Amino acid sequence: QELVSGDSEEESNGVNLMEFSDEILLHILSYVPCTDLVLNVRKTCRKLATLCLDKSLTHTVLLQRDYKVNKDKVKQLMRDIGKEIYQLNMAGCYWLPSSTTDHVTRCKNLVKLNLSGCRITSLRLSKMLSTLQHLRSLAIDVNPGFDASQLSSECKATLSRVSELKQTLYTPSYGVVPCCTSLEKLLLYFEILDRSREGFMLSGQLMVGESNVPHYQNLRIFYARLAPGYVNQEVVRLYLAVLSDRTPENLHAFLISAPGSFAETGATKNLLDSMARNVRLDALQLPKAWINGSGLLQHLKFNNPFYFSFSRCTLSGGHLIQRVINGGKDLKSLTSLNLSGCVHCLAPESLFRKAEDDIDSSILESLVVSCCNLRHLNLSAAHHHSSESIGNHLCQLLSRLKHLLSLALPVCSITDIAANVEKPPTQSNVVPQTFGKKARVGVQTYPRNLTDQENQKLESSVFWTLMGSLRFLETLEIIGSSFSSAMPRNEPAIRNSLPPCVRAQSVGDSEVAAISQLTYLQSLTLAQLPNIVTGSGLVSIGLQCQHLRTLSLANLGMMGKVVYMSALMDMLKHCKCLRDLRLEQPYFSAGAQFFQALSHCSSLQRLCIVSRSGTLQSEAVMSFMANCLEVIMCHMFMGESLTVCKNLQQSIVRSFQADRPALNVVIFPLLHEDLTEVIRDVPMRHLDEITLFKSRVAEEPPNLWW
């Protein structure tokens, strides 16, 4: 129908949308997916037909979260506004066929193109890039079968003008890097498996014809993230070999994220020595073996650093202050700092120190004063125990960082020392550290309202004060220092978990309730909080944190029983904006009541449940999928049989795939020997963002890619 203002509208009490100014309407329309604007909204009336094609709305087209888009919609979109698109983001559109990228050739004026996670062959890439003469920024995947010799001269001419390249490698290859002779920013993601599907060991040697040398002379940013595996380390060394011969003069960000052990070699040592002599850095991240025991940080020079990551390094607080913070000078520019797994970073020295010893509050205070503009801080995966001295608790010192947007802390760091000294945890609340005989908690329901005495005690805690001072925090992670997920990347599921830190034994419902002060909270992760008895704090979060989009809960309370189930179901009824939910808890029962509560989350798109000995009701899952029309990812790794899992997975796909093109369903026994083979087929977007558990605060520099 055509919307026009008439007498009937003037007589109505409502506001006519078409009476708003063009500026206001354009702002409103900017929140509507581009496919809806062009294919639907602009057909409603003449005014909207004009506004929907405004340059401010068609200049940048984002399809990476548009799970309803299909090949036909992309084709029509490119026909209608292809020439008006300057930036196109199709990252993670794994469900679109490879032929969809053929329509990108209509976007003759493209400057930035992101095809990460999209299926594309060498020939299709060549044909597409041959027509995009203005392209300056490109993101692609390099899959097995990629052949650089199939790239045409016109394609290579386009690549020679590209200054920003993001390349995800699933096979040993240089990809298109040798063709990009004007590179200023290079982002490399190594996702190569050590074994093929047939079980053969893979080699890190590049394929025949891959001997061309990358061109790094103009490079300003080098970033490499490695998935676990020896082959990934072999291949990244080939990329680094050229850098070790001649370090780019304009290099200002050098970042390598490598799990586990990644040994330093003669070539990498020469590279680091050259960097120390010739460049001044603004961002730095290195494998722990390259920093531990070396004087590298003492020789590196920094300009206006905005990002540091010393994740899992044995860097002591003394070295951190002296060599990195430089006595508080020139660190006002630092906005993101990752010290996860850096167990001695808040202690003066590490030689004779135990990981569980108290921190030196003066080091943390120097850090807070020097880096007063921090927006992202990660202190997880370590024991940061505060002493009993008044005013020097970690939470009290961190409350000075008023600009924080994301924060990750170990559970034991938020313990109120005074409260613990005054009243140790009662025997009934102490969490069993094994999966042995279950202990009766006795409390089967949770209090809806706290008493005045409990409120007063809660509001006087150091963690409550911290949460109250960080009103604009958007991301919070509270993770047990000894927590490890049951689903590691390339290994069988972990069957046993380490006990929580002794200092963490008192952290429970009251601390969770304190989080409800974060009005603008969007992402919350809670893992290994031992003293969760009822989960009453979760309800407070559901009521107060109305912007919550991502929720991840793991191993809360007793390990033999899900004690917070009733509170969780009440919480979910209030989470109207929740899009991603990840639950990891032994003995979790995903039954009708749970899925009925979850159905209130009308915006939910992705669900992941990981539960050793967990159970599910197939009928309840099917009903939930039918009610929640936005859900496009359902991953469940439970204790059910393979037959039950396969039948349910097939039923979901058969019933909902046609209406949900992006639907990805994996239901599989958690302890099955073939779990790793199943995991490798999960789209990287889901695997990296929700299925695998990890700390994500300050994982990468902010705004690393658009």
Structure description:
This protein is an alpha/beta fold. It has a domain at 462-487 and 499-690: Ribonuclease Inhibitor (Leucine-rich repeat, LRR (right-handed beta-alpha superhelix)), CATH 3.80.10. Helix content is 29%, strand content 15%. It contains 26 helices and 22 strands. The strands form two sheets. It has a 20-stranded parallel β-sheet, sandwiched between helices. Strands 18-20 form a two-stranded parallel ribbon. It is globular. The two termini are 37 Å apart. The model is unreliable at 1-11 and 421-444 (pLDDT under 50).
Can you summarize this structure?
InterPro entries: F-box-like_dom_sf, F-box_dom, FBXL18_F-box, FBXL18_LRR, LRR_dom_sf. This is FXL18 protein. By secondary structure, the protein is of the alpha/beta class.
Please count the helical segments: 26
> In angstroms, what is the radius of gyration?
27 Å
Query: Can you summarize the main beta sheet?
Result: 20 strands, parallel
- Which CATH architecture of the domain at 462-487 and 499-690 is right? Alpha-Beta Horseshoe
Cα-to-Cα separation, first versus last residue? 37 Å
Overall pLDDT, averaged? 89
Remind me, CATH topology of the domain at 462-487 and 499-690? Answer: Leucine-rich repeat, LRR (right-handed beta-alpha superhelix)
Low-confidence stretches: 1-11, 421-444
Q: Compute the number of strand runs.
A: 22
What is the general shape? globular
Fourth-tier CATH superfamily name of the domain at 462-487 and 499-690:
Ribonuclease Inhibitor
User: Percentage of helical residues?
Assistant: 25-40%
What's the CATH C level of the domain at 462-487 and 499-690? Alpha Beta
**Which structural category fits the helices and strands?**
alpha/beta
